[in-house]
Design brief:
By secondary structure, this protein is α/β, with parallel strands linked by helices. It has a single domain, classed as Queuine tRNA-ribosyltransferase-like (TIM Barrel). Helix content is about 35%, strand content about 10%. The protein contains 15 helices and 9 strands. β3, α7 and β4 form a beta-alpha-beta unit. α1 runs antiparallel to α15 and α9 packs parallel to α10. The C terminus is likely disordered.
Length: about 400
Protein backbone atom coordinates (compact mmCIF):
# COMPACT_ATOMS: atom_id res chain seq x y z
CA UNK A 1 0.00 0.00 0.00
CA UNK A 2 1.37 3.42 -0.93
CA UNK A 3 2.10 6.17 1.56
CA UNK A 4 -0.99 8.11 0.50
CA UNK A 5 -3.26 5.08 0.80
CA UNK A 6 -1.89 4.29 4.24
CA UNK A 7 -2.38 7.81 5.50
CA UNK A 8 -5.90 8.20 4.15
CA UNK A 9 -6.88 4.83 5.57
CA UNK A 10 -5.60 5.88 8.97
CA UNK A 11 -7.39 9.19 8.67
CA UNK A 12 -10.77 7.68 7.85
CA UNK A 13 -10.67 4.62 10.09
CA UNK A 14 -8.53 5.64 13.03
CA UNK A 15 -9.58 7.26 16.31
CA UNK A 16 -9.38 10.98 16.88
CA UNK A 17 -9.68 13.47 19.64
CA UNK A 18 -10.20 17.18 19.21
CA UNK A 19 -7.88 19.19 21.45
CA UNK A 20 -10.61 21.80 21.84
CA UNK A 21 -13.34 19.35 22.82
CA UNK A 22 -13.70 17.31 26.06
CA UNK A 23 -15.13 14.37 24.13
CA UNK A 24 -13.17 11.70 22.29
CA UNK A 25 -15.17 10.39 19.34
CA UNK A 26 -14.02 7.74 16.90
CA UNK A 27 -14.47 8.30 13.21
CA UNK A 28 -17.93 7.04 12.48
CA UNK A 29 -19.36 9.03 15.38
CA UNK A 30 -20.52 12.61 15.23
CA UNK A 31 -19.12 15.69 16.93
CA UNK A 32 -20.94 15.87 20.30
CA UNK A 33 -21.34 19.59 19.82
CA UNK A 34 -22.74 19.21 16.35
CA UNK A 35 -19.96 21.42 15.07
CA UNK A 36 -21.72 24.48 16.46
CA UNK A 37 -19.62 25.31 19.53
CA UNK A 38 -17.65 28.55 19.28
CA UNK A 39 -14.41 26.58 19.41
CA UNK A 40 -15.51 24.16 16.69
CA UNK A 41 -16.68 26.32 13.81
CA UNK A 42 -13.59 26.17 11.57
CA UNK A 43 -14.11 24.40 8.29
CA UNK A 44 -12.47 20.99 8.07
CA UNK A 45 -11.75 18.83 5.05
CA UNK A 46 -12.99 15.30 5.62
CA UNK A 47 -14.89 12.63 3.69
CA UNK A 48 -18.17 13.27 5.50
CA UNK A 49 -18.58 16.67 3.89
CA UNK A 50 -20.83 17.05 0.88
CA UNK A 51 -18.18 18.89 -1.14
CA UNK A 52 -15.35 16.44 -0.38
CA UNK A 53 -15.46 15.00 -3.93
CA UNK A 54 -15.44 18.46 -5.45
CA UNK A 55 -12.53 19.53 -3.28
CA UNK A 56 -10.42 16.57 -4.36
CA UNK A 57 -11.51 16.94 -7.98
CA UNK A 58 -10.26 20.53 -7.85
CA UNK A 59 -6.78 19.30 -6.98
CA UNK A 60 -6.89 16.06 -9.00
CA UNK A 61 -6.37 14.07 -5.83
CA UNK A 62 -3.76 14.33 -3.10
CA UNK A 63 -0.67 13.07 -4.91
CA UNK A 64 2.04 15.70 -5.53
CA UNK A 65 3.36 13.54 -8.36
CA UNK A 66 0.40 14.35 -10.60
CA UNK A 67 2.06 17.71 -11.22
CA UNK A 68 5.02 17.60 -13.60
CA UNK A 69 7.27 20.66 -13.61
CA UNK A 70 8.07 22.08 -17.03
CA UNK A 71 11.35 23.61 -18.17
CA UNK A 72 11.35 27.37 -17.64
CA UNK A 73 13.84 30.25 -17.78
CA UNK A 74 16.24 30.31 -14.85
CA UNK A 75 15.20 32.70 -12.07
CA UNK A 76 18.46 34.27 -10.93
CA UNK A 77 17.61 36.03 -7.69
CA UNK A 78 20.06 38.15 -5.69
CA UNK A 79 20.72 37.28 -2.05
CA UNK A 80 18.08 39.80 -0.96
CA UNK A 81 15.02 40.75 -2.99
CA UNK A 82 13.83 44.11 -1.63
CA UNK A 83 10.11 44.62 -1.07
CA UNK A 84 7.77 47.12 -2.64
CA UNK A 85 4.09 47.66 -1.87
CA UNK A 86 3.00 49.66 -4.91
CA UNK A 87 3.41 53.02 -3.19
CA UNK A 88 5.96 55.62 -4.21
CA UNK A 89 8.43 54.67 -1.46
CA UNK A 90 9.90 51.92 -3.64
CA UNK A 91 10.93 54.17 -6.51
CA UNK A 92 14.43 54.84 -5.14
CA UNK A 93 15.45 51.23 -4.79
CA UNK A 94 16.90 50.81 -8.31
CA UNK A 95 17.50 47.08 -7.80
CA UNK A 96 17.47 44.37 -10.50
CA UNK A 97 14.69 42.51 -8.66
CA UNK A 98 11.91 43.66 -6.33
CA UNK A 99 9.25 41.60 -4.57
CA UNK A 100 5.61 42.44 -3.91
CA UNK A 101 3.20 40.45 -1.77
CA UNK A 102 -0.18 39.27 -2.97
CA UNK A 103 -2.36 41.70 -0.98
CA UNK A 104 -0.38 44.75 -2.16
CA UNK A 105 -0.51 43.45 -5.73
CA UNK A 106 -4.27 43.01 -5.59
CA UNK A 107 -4.85 46.51 -4.20
CA UNK A 108 -2.86 48.16 -6.97
CA UNK A 109 -4.00 46.00 -9.86
CA UNK A 110 -7.67 46.42 -8.89
CA UNK A 111 -7.36 50.16 -9.44
CA UNK A 112 -4.76 50.41 -12.20
CA UNK A 113 -5.57 47.55 -14.57
CA UNK A 114 -9.08 48.72 -15.53
CA UNK A 115 -7.54 52.08 -16.46
CA UNK A 116 -5.09 50.43 -18.82
CA UNK A 117 -2.07 51.35 -16.69
CA UNK A 118 0.87 49.06 -17.29
CA UNK A 119 2.35 46.98 -14.48
CA UNK A 120 5.58 48.78 -13.61
CA UNK A 121 4.10 52.30 -13.54
CA UNK A 122 1.05 50.95 -11.75
CA UNK A 123 3.23 49.48 -9.03
CA UNK A 124 5.59 52.49 -8.85
CA UNK A 125 8.52 50.28 -9.78
CA UNK A 126 11.68 51.25 -11.64
CA UNK A 127 11.28 50.41 -15.32
CA UNK A 128 14.47 48.33 -15.30
CA UNK A 129 13.44 46.08 -12.40
CA UNK A 130 12.17 42.54 -12.58
CA UNK A 131 9.13 41.76 -10.45
CA UNK A 132 8.76 38.77 -8.13
CA UNK A 133 5.17 38.27 -6.99
CA UNK A 134 4.95 36.49 -3.63
CA UNK A 135 1.67 34.66 -3.12
CA UNK A 136 2.22 34.82 0.64
CA UNK A 137 -0.87 35.89 2.56
CA UNK A 138 -3.12 34.96 5.45
CA UNK A 139 -5.67 32.16 5.21
CA UNK A 140 -8.58 34.53 4.66
CA UNK A 141 -7.03 35.69 1.38
CA UNK A 142 -5.65 32.33 0.23
CA UNK A 143 -8.58 30.11 1.20
CA UNK A 144 -11.39 32.59 0.63
CA UNK A 145 -10.21 34.48 -2.44
CA UNK A 146 -7.12 33.16 -4.23
CA UNK A 147 -7.89 29.44 -4.46
CA UNK A 148 -11.61 29.74 -5.34
CA UNK A 149 -10.84 32.52 -7.83
CA UNK A 150 -7.54 31.12 -9.09
CA UNK A 151 -8.52 31.05 -12.76
CA UNK A 152 -9.75 34.64 -12.73
CA UNK A 153 -6.59 35.70 -10.90
CA UNK A 154 -4.39 34.00 -13.49
CA UNK A 155 -6.27 35.80 -16.24
CA UNK A 156 -5.24 39.13 -14.67
CA UNK A 157 -1.61 38.07 -14.99
CA UNK A 158 -2.01 38.01 -18.76
CA UNK A 159 -1.87 41.81 -18.80
CA UNK A 160 0.20 42.36 -15.65
CA UNK A 161 2.72 39.57 -16.03
CA UNK A 162 5.42 39.42 -13.34
CA UNK A 163 8.83 37.98 -14.14
CA UNK A 164 8.39 35.24 -11.53
CA UNK A 165 5.81 34.12 -8.99
CA UNK A 166 6.38 32.25 -5.72
CA UNK A 167 3.50 29.85 -5.11
CA UNK A 168 0.93 30.34 -2.32
CA UNK A 169 1.87 29.44 1.25
CA UNK A 170 -1.26 27.54 2.22
CA UNK A 171 -0.99 26.94 5.94
CA UNK A 172 0.22 23.62 7.27
CA UNK A 173 -1.13 23.96 10.80
CA UNK A 174 0.39 22.12 13.74
CA UNK A 175 -2.96 20.74 14.89
CA UNK A 176 -4.39 19.89 11.47
CA UNK A 177 -5.10 16.34 10.42
CA UNK A 178 -2.86 14.69 7.86
CA UNK A 179 -5.39 15.12 5.07
CA UNK A 180 -5.67 18.87 5.56
CA UNK A 181 -1.91 19.32 5.58
CA UNK A 182 -1.69 17.20 2.44
CA UNK A 183 -4.48 19.25 0.86
CA UNK A 184 -2.52 22.45 1.51
CA UNK A 185 0.65 20.96 0.02
CA UNK A 186 -1.18 19.73 -3.06
CA UNK A 187 -2.94 23.04 -3.70
CA UNK A 188 0.38 24.84 -3.54
CA UNK A 189 2.00 22.55 -6.10
CA UNK A 190 -1.09 22.63 -8.33
CA UNK A 191 -0.96 26.43 -8.30
CA UNK A 192 2.68 26.16 -9.37
CA UNK A 193 1.45 24.04 -12.28
CA UNK A 194 -1.21 26.60 -13.24
CA UNK A 195 1.36 29.38 -13.25
CA UNK A 196 3.55 27.39 -15.61
CA UNK A 197 0.50 26.67 -17.81
CA UNK A 198 0.18 30.45 -18.21
CA UNK A 199 3.82 30.82 -19.24
CA UNK A 200 4.94 32.32 -15.91
CA UNK A 201 8.22 31.36 -14.28
CA UNK A 202 7.07 29.81 -11.01
CA UNK A 203 8.62 28.84 -7.67
CA UNK A 204 6.90 26.06 -5.70
CA UNK A 205 6.27 26.75 -2.02
CA UNK A 206 7.40 23.90 0.24
CA UNK A 207 6.08 23.05 3.72
CA UNK A 208 5.22 19.81 5.50
CA UNK A 209 3.98 18.50 8.80
CA UNK A 210 5.55 15.07 9.25
CA UNK A 211 8.35 12.83 8.00
CA UNK A 212 6.20 11.17 5.36
CA UNK A 213 5.16 14.49 3.86
CA UNK A 214 8.75 15.64 3.77
CA UNK A 215 9.46 12.46 1.83
CA UNK A 216 6.69 13.39 -0.60
CA UNK A 217 8.48 16.67 -1.33
CA UNK A 218 11.85 14.94 -1.62
CA UNK A 219 10.51 12.52 -4.22
CA UNK A 220 8.67 15.24 -6.16
CA UNK A 221 11.65 17.61 -6.26
CA UNK A 222 14.05 14.82 -7.20
CA UNK A 223 11.76 13.73 -10.05
CA UNK A 224 11.21 17.23 -11.38
CA UNK A 225 14.67 18.79 -10.92
CA UNK A 226 13.24 22.13 -9.80
CA UNK A 227 15.99 24.75 -9.53
CA UNK A 228 14.36 27.04 -6.95
CA UNK A 229 11.89 26.51 -4.09
CA UNK A 230 10.41 28.86 -1.51
CA UNK A 231 9.48 28.80 2.17
CA UNK A 232 7.62 31.53 4.05
CA UNK A 233 8.95 31.60 7.63
CA UNK A 234 7.27 34.79 8.81
CA UNK A 235 5.27 33.01 11.51
CA UNK A 236 7.90 30.49 12.58
CA UNK A 237 8.15 30.77 16.35
CA UNK A 238 11.64 31.63 17.75
CA UNK A 239 11.33 28.78 20.23
CA UNK A 240 11.46 26.16 17.46
CA UNK A 241 14.04 27.75 15.19
CA UNK A 242 16.72 25.32 16.29
CA UNK A 243 14.48 22.38 15.54
CA UNK A 244 13.53 23.82 12.18
CA UNK A 245 17.19 24.36 11.31
CA UNK A 246 17.91 20.70 12.03
CA UNK A 247 14.97 19.52 9.94
CA UNK A 248 15.92 21.84 7.09
CA UNK A 249 19.36 20.20 7.06
CA UNK A 250 17.75 16.76 7.03
CA UNK A 251 15.56 17.80 4.12
CA UNK A 252 18.54 19.15 2.19
CA UNK A 253 20.53 15.96 2.68
CA UNK A 254 17.57 13.80 1.69
CA UNK A 255 17.21 15.74 -1.56
CA UNK A 256 20.74 15.03 -2.75
CA UNK A 257 20.32 17.92 -5.18
CA UNK A 258 20.62 21.48 -3.90
CA UNK A 259 18.08 23.84 -5.47
CA UNK A 260 18.02 27.50 -4.59
CA UNK A 261 15.84 28.46 -1.64
CA UNK A 262 13.85 31.69 -1.38
CA UNK A 263 13.10 32.40 2.27
CA UNK A 264 10.42 34.93 3.12
CA UNK A 265 9.59 36.65 6.36
CA UNK A 266 12.74 37.35 8.37
CA UNK A 267 15.55 39.91 8.63
CA UNK A 268 16.96 38.68 11.94
CA UNK A 269 20.76 38.51 11.59
CA UNK A 270 21.30 35.36 13.62
CA UNK A 271 18.44 33.60 11.89
CA UNK A 272 19.69 34.59 8.41
CA UNK A 273 23.15 33.34 9.29
CA UNK A 274 21.70 30.11 10.65
CA UNK A 275 19.69 29.42 7.48
CA UNK A 276 22.68 30.17 5.24
CA UNK A 277 24.75 27.81 7.35
CA UNK A 278 22.42 25.01 6.26
CA UNK A 279 21.38 26.22 2.81
CA UNK A 280 24.01 28.55 1.30
CA UNK A 281 22.03 28.86 -1.94
CA UNK A 282 19.34 30.79 -0.05
CA UNK A 283 17.94 34.16 -1.08
CA UNK A 284 15.74 36.24 1.19
CA UNK A 285 12.88 38.68 1.06
CA UNK A 286 10.99 40.34 3.89
CA UNK A 287 8.23 42.92 4.02
CA UNK A 288 10.03 45.88 5.58
CA UNK A 289 7.93 48.50 3.81
CA UNK A 290 5.65 48.73 6.83
CA UNK A 291 8.58 49.86 8.99
CA UNK A 292 9.36 52.60 6.51
CA UNK A 293 5.76 53.80 6.44
CA UNK A 294 5.82 53.95 10.26
CA UNK A 295 9.06 55.93 10.08
CA UNK A 296 11.16 53.39 11.91
CA UNK A 297 14.74 52.38 11.26
CA UNK A 298 16.76 49.43 12.50
CA UNK A 299 19.71 50.12 14.78
CA UNK A 300 22.11 47.66 16.31
CA UNK A 301 22.64 47.40 20.06
CA UNK A 302 26.08 46.82 21.59
CA UNK A 303 25.29 43.14 22.04
CA UNK A 304 24.59 42.84 18.32
CA UNK A 305 20.80 42.57 18.59
CA UNK A 306 18.54 44.79 16.51
CA UNK A 307 16.19 47.46 17.80
CA UNK A 308 13.63 49.69 16.06
CA UNK A 309 14.03 53.43 16.44
CA UNK A 310 11.37 56.02 15.64
CA UNK A 311 12.47 58.73 13.17
CA UNK A 312 9.90 61.48 13.58
CA UNK A 313 10.64 63.38 10.38
CA UNK A 314 12.08 60.54 8.39
CA UNK A 315 11.28 60.14 4.70
CA UNK A 316 9.71 56.65 4.23
CA UNK A 317 11.40 56.21 0.84
CA UNK A 318 14.79 57.01 2.35
CA UNK A 319 14.16 54.75 5.35
CA UNK A 320 13.21 51.85 3.07
CA UNK A 321 16.35 52.31 0.99
CA UNK A 322 18.53 52.42 4.10
CA UNK A 323 16.91 49.27 5.51
CA UNK A 324 17.47 47.41 2.25
CA UNK A 325 21.10 48.55 2.18
CA UNK A 326 21.52 47.40 5.80
CA UNK A 327 20.22 43.92 5.03
CA UNK A 328 22.30 43.65 1.85
CA UNK A 329 25.44 44.67 3.76
CA UNK A 330 24.66 42.16 6.49
CA UNK A 331 24.33 39.32 3.97
CA UNK A 332 27.46 40.47 2.18
CA UNK A 333 29.26 40.36 5.50
CA UNK A 334 28.52 36.68 5.80
CA UNK A 335 31.07 36.12 3.01
CA UNK A 336 33.75 36.35 5.70
CA UNK A 337 32.55 33.35 7.71
CA UNK A 338 34.68 30.22 7.18
CA UNK A 339 32.30 28.09 5.14
CA UNK A 340 31.19 30.86 2.77
CA UNK A 341 34.33 30.56 0.63
CA UNK A 342 33.83 31.45 -3.01
CA UNK A 343 30.16 30.44 -2.97
CA UNK A 344 28.69 33.90 -2.57
CA UNK A 345 30.69 35.23 -5.49
CA UNK A 346 30.08 32.37 -7.90
CA UNK A 347 26.67 31.07 -6.76
CA UNK A 348 28.06 27.56 -7.09
CA UNK A 349 27.05 24.43 -5.18
CA UNK A 350 29.57 24.61 -2.34
CA UNK A 351 27.87 23.80 0.96
CA UNK A 352 28.89 24.21 4.60
CA UNK A 353 29.93 21.57 7.05
CA UNK A 354 27.58 21.79 10.01
CA UNK A 355 28.52 19.19 12.60
CA UNK A 356 25.77 19.76 15.14
CA UNK A 357 22.79 18.89 12.95
CA UNK A 358 20.68 15.77 12.69
CA UNK A 359 21.42 14.69 9.13
CA UNK A 360 19.67 11.33 9.01
CA UNK A 361 17.85 10.74 5.71
CA UNK A 362 14.10 10.92 5.71
CA UNK A 363 13.79 7.18 5.22
CA UNK A 364 15.03 6.67 8.76
CA UNK A 365 13.40 7.76 12.00
CA UNK A 366 14.62 11.35 12.11
CA UNK A 367 11.94 12.43 14.61
CA UNK A 368 10.37 15.10 12.47
CA UNK A 369 7.88 17.20 14.37
CA UNK A 370 4.75 18.85 13.05
CA UNK A 371 5.64 21.90 15.17
CA UNK A 372 8.87 22.70 13.40
CA UNK A 373 7.67 23.04 9.83
CA UNK A 374 4.10 24.04 10.49
CA UNK A 375 5.03 27.68 10.32
CA UNK A 376 1.78 29.03 11.68
CA UNK A 377 0.41 29.11 15.19
CA UNK A 378 -2.40 26.78 16.20
CA UNK A 379 -5.98 27.52 15.29
CA UNK A 380 -9.20 25.97 16.47
CA UNK A 381 -10.58 23.03 14.58
CA UNK A 382 -13.80 21.10 14.47
CA UNK A 383 -13.29 17.37 15.22
CA UNK A 384 -13.67 15.09 12.22
CA UNK A 385 -16.98 13.30 11.89
CA UNK A 386 -16.26 10.84 9.11
CA UNK A 387 -17.87 7.44 8.75
CA UNK A 388 -15.96 4.21 7.93
CA UNK A 389 -18.20 3.67 4.93
CA UNK A 390 -16.35 6.52 3.24
CA UNK A 391 -13.01 4.70 3.52
CA UNK A 392 -12.96 2.62 0.35
CA UNK A 393 -14.66 5.38 -1.65
CA UNK A 394 -12.21 8.05 -0.48
CA UNK A 395 -9.18 5.87 -1.07
CA UNK A 396 -10.36 5.02 -4.57
CA UNK A 397 -10.55 8.72 -5.41
CA UNK A 398 -6.83 9.05 -4.94
Amino acid sequence: MSYLHEQLSAFVLGPTKCDRCPFSAPFGGLCPGGGTASACTERTLNPSQADFDAQLAGTRGLDLGVTIARPQPRIGLPRFVPPVDGSAIGQRLERPWVAIRLTDWLKRSHVAQPLGIEMLPGLNIDSRAKVLLLLFANDFVLEGKLWPGRHRFLDTLETWKPDAVAGPDFSVWEDDSWIERQFSMVRSVRFFELLQDHGIAAIPHVAWGDRGQMGEWVRWLAANQVELISMDLQCLQPSIRGQFRSELATFRDALGIHPGLLVGGTTDEQWLRSILGVWPEASFSANVTLLAHKRRRTDQRRDGSATRVMVERGDPADLLLREVERIEAMLEGFMTIPWASKFFNSWGTLGPVVADLNRQPYTQDCSLSADALSVRTSRRRRPHAANPEFAAHAITRL
